[in-house]
Amino acid sequence: MKIKFHFAALLTFLSEKESSKTTPVSSGYRCDIKFPFDLVLHTARLHFPETDLVYPDDTVNTEMTMLKNAEITKKIYEGLDFDFYEGTQLMGHGIVTKMISQTSNDHSVD
Questions:
Q1: Deepest of 11, 23, 32, 85, by most Cβ within 10 A of its Cβ?
Q2: Which SUPFAM superfamilies does the record associate with it (predicted)?
Q3: 56-68 pLDDT, tens digit each
Q4: CATH number for the domain including 17?
Q5: In the chain, which ranges are continuous DSSP H helix?
């Protein structure tokens, strides 16, 4: 099954001390996203095209797919900042760098 990405973002993961996360994450990692315009957390699947593992305190480019509520992408725009969580624990901050067309086959993975 091909995964189609909704947008690209630059993510900054908090340090181990700030987030309590001690292990790295890899493509396929799922987190909850909190946008400033919504009180609801939205689940996203992350793909890291430039690296295999992302550690606490790293800043990395990612391609993101919104799960469950893809309609939220209509409110997302380049330059929008957001926080991301693992459960209730804040893991870091992000900024949308590019909206990805849903009709393009160039931005998908198996």
A1: 11
A2: EF-Tu/eEF-1alpha/eIF2-gamma C-terminal domain
A3: 999 999 999 998 7
A4: 2.40.30.10
A5: 16-19
